[in-house]
Structures are given as C-alpha cells and as structure tokens.
Design brief:
This protein is α/β, with parallel strands linked by helices. Helices cover 34% and strands 25% of the residues. The chain has 2 domains: 3-120 and 237-279, 3-Layer(aba) Sandwich (D-Maltodextrin-Binding Protein, domain 2); 123-226, 3-Layer(aba) Sandwich (D-Maltodextrin-Binding Protein, domain 2). The strands form 3 sheets. Strands 1-3-2-4-13-5-14 form a 7-stranded mixed beta sheet, with helices on both faces. Helix 2 packs across helix 9 (251-260).
Length: 281
C-alpha cells in the first residue's frame, strides 16, 4: 500500500459548552447533528496536494459542529478507493467522476459521488522542450496510464494539434485510438504520480493539476497549454468526495461536503492555487 506514514488529524471535537455568544444557535444545531450521528470522527483518504490541504481548511468548520476530521495521505489512485469500499475509511477526496465510474467497473467496488468540490485544469508542461513549436519527429511525451486520465491527456494533445483520435474515442481514448500521429510521437504511460519525475527525460509531460502543483509548476506561468475553466473537460472532471453507496446521506458526510463548499474554503482555493485548482459551483 502506498500510504504516507503520517496521518494528519485535522481538528478535534468541540464541547457544547464552548458554543456560546454570536451564532451559538447554528453551532449548537451542528453539534446536535454530530451527536445524533454514529460517527463523529470522519476518516478521509486523500491525495496530498491539493486535497489534504483543502481538507485542512474545512477542519475548523467541522470542529464547530462537533466533528473530528482525520485525513490520511495516499500516494496512489487505487488504495484510497479500496479503503473506502472496505469501510476502513468514511470517504476519500482525490478523484473525478469518470475515474470513479471506471474504477467501480474494473474493481467491482460500489462507490458514489457525495458532492463535487473542485476541478483541476489538465495541462501540458515543459520537459526537455519549452514550447509546442519545438516538437520534432519521434519526441516522447509522458502521460497518465489510467483509463480516464489517459483519455483526457490525449484529448488535450489533440486540441493542440499534436495528434488526431479516432472519431468517437472521447473519454475512453487510449493510444490505440490515435488515428493520425504526424510527428510519430511516442508516449510513456506512467502512473500519474510518477510523471513529473521524468520531465528531464521526455519532451513534454501532461499532468493532473495536483501533480503539477507538487512538481512546483504554476498553471498560469508554466503550462504550455491547459484546459479552459469553462471547457467540457474541466467540468466533467470535477473532483468529488466519494463514499460507499448508501453512505452519501449520512450526517457526517453531508457536513463534510458542506464545509468543503463553504465560502471560506472557496476563498482559500482561489487565493492559494494560481488557477491550478478551481472551486466547483
């Protein structure tokens, strides 16, 4: 299991006696909701950036409602779903809906979307070359190897004139669906978390927003091309809170989603990520 040893406990339960003064009524109601729930500690599996960072901003909001938010950082895209499906964790926050649906189909899990929180524009970033004008015969481009993210990368490359996919390939496209490859490009298919590590070995890398951030890239300053905020792709790939089917209406899950969609968290996202992460309305 690729899991960080560090388990981040973000916030602690707050005593009802502390809920006094201005706004005490709404806070007390939140605490009552937490007390009625069988689960006042919310265990969430997350990617480090930006997901765990955003969760940290939600922790004080949940604390006021009597919930303890416990976040464990994972370094891959498989275990966070398995630990939620098994019941070891209450929710995860790292993925978009197409990946979730693909994972359910491939792994036989039964996970559902409990709420959309943000999206991360996919981008093409420099490797050994800094502009698409420099692309040459036989160049290598590193792309994610999981089904939905590979398709997203190929669609972005197509949008920028580097290849043409077969008609109808869409969100399930793989390198086998490339119909025209005028530069005879090669594709190094890697686990998404590993792509940035080969940027000095390939012409370009195509990165998820969170891994671009971890690699020190700025979408606004460093990307060669990226998905527009209002594009169909950006809207399709909204990152969600995922839970086991049947748990999406649990009080603690609703509280988690509401906290992550709060004005305070939206403001944090806007001010922190330089366009690499955009709050989902």
């Amino acid at each position: 299991m690729k899991k960080r040893v560090l388990s981040l406990v973000l916030g602690t339960a707050v005593a009802a006696s502390a809920l006094v003064g201005c706004g005490a009524s709404s806070k007390a109601e939140g605490t009552a909701a937490a007390s009625a729930s069988t689960n006042t500690t919310i265990k969430v599996a997350a990617s480090a950036t930006p997901h765990a960072e955003i969760l940290e901003q939600a922790a004080p909001i949940l604390e006021e409602q009597g919930y303890t938010l416990e976040v464990t950082v994972f370094d891959d895209y498989v275990q966070p779903n398995l630990v939620v499906d098994s019941g070891e964790f209450d929710a995860n926050y790292f993925q978009h809906i197409p990946y979730l649906e693909s994972f359910n189909e491939e792994q036989g899990t039964d996970l559902v979307d409990a709420g959309g929180i943000h999206y991360e524009p996919f981008g093409i970033y420099p490797g050994t070359k800094s502009t698409l004008d420099q692309v040459a015969e036989g160049d290598v481009i590193a792309i994610p190897n999981d089904t939905t993210n590979e398709a997203r990368a190929l669609l972005l490359l197509q949008d920028n004139g580097l290849l043409t996919l077969k008609e109808g390939a869409g969100l399930t496209a793989t390198i086998n669906d490339i119909e025209e490859n005028p530069y005879s490009l090669s594709f190094q298919e890697l686990e998404a978390a590993q792509i940035a590590r080969v940027k000095d070995e390939v012409a370009f890398v195509v990165l998820n927003g969170n891994y671009a951030l971890e690699a020190g890239f700025s979408v606004a300053k460093d990307s060669i091309a990226f998905e527009a905020a209002d594009s169909e792709a950006a809207q399709t790939y909204v990152n969600v809170i995922a839970v086991k089917n049947g748990n999406e209406n649990n009080p603690e899950i609703k509280a988690l989603v509401e906290a992550l969609k709060s004005d305070e968290v939206k403001e944090y996202i806007t001010n922190t990520y330089d366009g690499a992460v955009v709050a989902f309305e």
